[in-house]
Specification:
By secondary structure, this protein is of the alpha/beta class. It is built from 21 helices and 29 strands. The strands form eight sheets. The protein has a seven-stranded mixed beta sheet, with helices on both faces. A seven-stranded mixed beta sheet has the order 12-11-8-6-7-14-15, sandwiched between helices. A hairpin with a 7-residue loop joins strand 14 and strand 15. The longest helix has 17 residues. The two termini are 29 Å apart. The structure holds adenosine-5'-monophosphate-propyl ester. Adenosine-5'-monophosphate-propyl ester binds next to helix 12, strand 23 and strand 24.
Length: 656
């Protein structure tokens, strides 16, 4: 199945309007209502967000100023005091929601747990008190390295409750990647588990933490809190490592929420960019709480009767915003699943939907493409009639996959909500509102009310309809990242200077190319920088290259993305070797494993090609464009006159 090309996108004319029946019951009921909201927000964004902040959240103290915009630094609801764990838990305990299912969890081996709001509140208070007992204080950072178990949500909320910032690291990342993130965040404590279940295997986590902390690898970490999940035998370092179930038994379940300033640090989440080490994206409390709450409520038309399931991992932004904070702030029932389709149970996704009567299902195009490959007999054999809305995120969805999702899973009755956003944006930016927006397969449609998005050229001028350009946001929004942790200069340079500010107008640009059609619909064309999107996960080419050259056999490495039928893109590595080494299959496998060890399995190259030299310009810059052509077996396109040594190309073509 192919990724959308510009030509195929320009030809895509299918339009799917919300049914009247759906629109009538929706929060936002018509295109007109959306346009009115958009217009109101555009005319006075501060008033728009302030009204929502008042209606939708509980504040201990009201703000003095809605927005303090000192470009590129924004502060929202300045002087306001709140606690996001209070908004996600406590405030639901005074209503019937007290005994409503807050979190339904299904483990891969078939075990399951359900927490009501009252029970989740109790668990969070217990963990918050354990953290305090281990010396964690307001303002400290806590690393979270957990599998998809309820304790991941509990840990995040417990940190937020006492005013400690969390920094989650995806459980698929290696010890090395974990270490760099713990060091950068100066984490005081790490919450982990012995292991988790993934595709019928136990994924070890605690041993990775041990490796990351070995030889004083992350010197600020004083304690490790370990959740028992897989029941593997793990080493427990005396004085440093503690079992959660042991400490939990000795603390009180009473833990009042810490009143937090609206702009207090809520979490750091690391993400890849073009250059250097991963960036710590900083999100703060009030704006993020409001933004995830409202975007989820409107874009997924969230109701009290919904059973909402997002399949992302809690270690990524989608898990933060739309498994934990957004749903719980709304008082919804959120489903969390530890497993993934696997040979022993290819239909597990559909079983979970049937078992819990899931009404809203949110996943990624790469998952949809793998469902297509596994065959429609799996979903067809289950009762999926509870579904009413389907969502997608992480990469552009090819219209073919969109149509399959619509026909087979949605039975042609569920609106498809294609949400474009990023770790940096905190929440949805461009998305249909399912009762209002007619959808087009492959388009994320229109900006959320309050989001001033556009497609511009390098000078910041809007481009013509259907012309490609840079996707930018021209006004601050409450969920935006505040800075790069510890590096405000990098924040400004990376996101706000790619397109230079002019006449006081600033442009937020985070790496995507796009076009707008004649109806104003946005079509995301993918990254325009050196970021590869593997199965919806962002990988910086430089990170993979650094991992490769850290192997003794490798002299130089250049990495590019190439199309992959299921993952969207995969890594293809070009490598030159140190003398005395020879390129053969065994070394290729060793290098793939080396990258997996250094970063994580997601970064593992699909192919390693050995070469005598890399194509470079006379000034020594690797010409990735040519490597991209070579990796995908295409003809070399464009100008090659700046190439220093043309014979390199001929050799590479020959597949040496
Ligand atoms: O390239 C865009 C792609 O994913 C990038 C953001 O990655 P990350 O920060 O890891 O967050 C992923 C989940 C929000 C974007 O720059 N992307 C995300 N959603 C879409 C998308 N591309 C096209 N359509 C989408 N719906």
């Amino acid at each position: 199945m192919s990724q959308p090309t510009i030509e195929s996108i320009l030809e895509e004319k299918r339009l799917f309007a919300p049914s009247q029946e759906f629109a009538q019951q929706a929060h936002i009921k018509s295109q007109q209502e959306y346009q009115d909201l958009y217009e109101t927000a555009r005319a006075n964004p501060e008033q728009f967000w302030a009204n929502l902040a008042e209606q939708e959240l509980d504040w201990f103290e009201k703000w003095d100023q809605v927005l303090d915009w000192n470009p590129p630094f924004a502060k929202w609801f300045v002087g306001g005091k709140l606690n996001i764990s209070y908004n996600c838990l406590d405030r639901h305990l005074t209503s019937w929601r007290k005994n409503k299912a807050a979190l339904i969890w299904e483990g891969e081996p078939g075990d399951s747990r359900t927490y009501t709001y009252a029970q989740l509140h109790r668990e969070v208070c217990l963990m918050a008190n354990v953290l305090k007992q281990l010396g964690v204080e307001k303002g400290d950072r806590v690393g979270i390295y957990l599998p998809m178990i309820p304790e991941a949500a509990i840990a995040m909320l417990a940190c937020a409750r006492i005013g400690a910032a969390h920094s989650a690291v995806f459980g698929g990342f290696s010890a090395e990647a974990l270490k760099t993130r713990l060091v950068d965040a100066e984490a005081k404590l790490v919450i982990t588990a012995d292991g988790g279940f993934r595709k019928d295997k136990v994924v070890s986590l605690k041993p990775e933490v041990d490796k990351a902390l070995a030889d004083n690898g992350a010197p600020t970490v004083e304690n490790v809190l370990v959740v028992q999940r897989s029941e593997e035998k793990v080493h427990m370092e005396p004085g440093r490592d503690h079992w959660w179930h042991d400490l939990k038994a000795g603390v009180s379940a009473d833990c009042p929420p810490e009143p937090m300033d609206s702009e207090d640090l809520l979490f750091i989440l690391y993400t890849s960019g073009t250059t250097g080490k991963p960036k710590g994206v900083v999100h703060t409390t009030g704006g993020y709480n409001l933004y995830t709450h409202v975007t989820l409520k409107w874009a997924f038309d969230l109701k009290d009767t919904d059973v909402y399931w997002c399949t992302a991992d809690v270690g990524w932004i989608t898990g933060h915003s739309y498994i934990v904070y957004g749903p719980l702030s709304n008082g919804a029932t959120t489903v969390m699943y530890e497993g993934a389709p696997r040979p022993s149970n290819p239909g597990c996704i559909w079983d979970v939907i049937e078992k819990y009567g899931v009404t809203i299902f949110y996943t990624a195009p790469t998952a949809i493409r793998s469902f297509i490959k596994m065959g429609e007999h799996h979903p067809n054999a289950r009762d999926l009639s509870s579904l009413r809305i389907l969502g997608t995120v992480g990469e552009p969805i090819n219209p073919e996959a969109w149509m399959w999702y619509h026909r087979i899973i949605g039975q042609e009755k569920c609106p498809i909500v294609d949400t474009w956003w990023q770790t940096e944006t905190g929440g949805f930016m461009i998305t249909p509102l399912p009762g209002a927006t007619s959808t087009k397969p492959g388009s994320a449609t229109l900006p959320f009310p309050g989001i001033m998005a556009d497609v511009v050229d390098l000078d910041g001028n809007p481009v013509q309809p259907n012309e490609g350009g840079y996707l930018v946001v021209t006004y601050p929004w409450p969920g935006m990242m505040r800075t790069v942790y510890g590096d405000p200069v990098r924040f400004r340079r990376t996101y706000w200077e790619h397109i230079a500010p002019k006449d006081g107008q600033y442009f937020y640009f985070a790496g995507d190319g796009a076009r707008k059609d004649e109806d104003g619909y946005f079509w995301i064309m993918g990254r325009v920088d050196d970021v590869i999107n593997v199965a919806g996960h962002r990988l910086g080419t430089m990170e993979v290259e650094s991992a490769l050259v850290s192997h003794p056999a490798v002299a130089e490495a250049a990495v590019v993305g190439r199309q992959n039928e299921v993952k969207g893109e995969e890594v293809c590595a070009f490598v030159t070797l140190e003398k005395d080494y020879e390129g053969h299959e065994e070394l290729s496998n060793e290098l793939k494993q080396h990258v997996a060890n250094e970063i994580g399995a997601i970064a593992c190259p699909g192919e390693v090609r050995f070469t005598d030299a890399l194509p470079k310009t006379r000034s020594g810059k690797i010409m990735r464009r040519l490597l991209r052509n070579l990796a995908s077996g295409e003809e070399i396109a464009g100008d090659t006159s700046t190439l220093e040594d043309r014979s390199v190309l001929d050799k590479l073509r020959g597949g040496s």
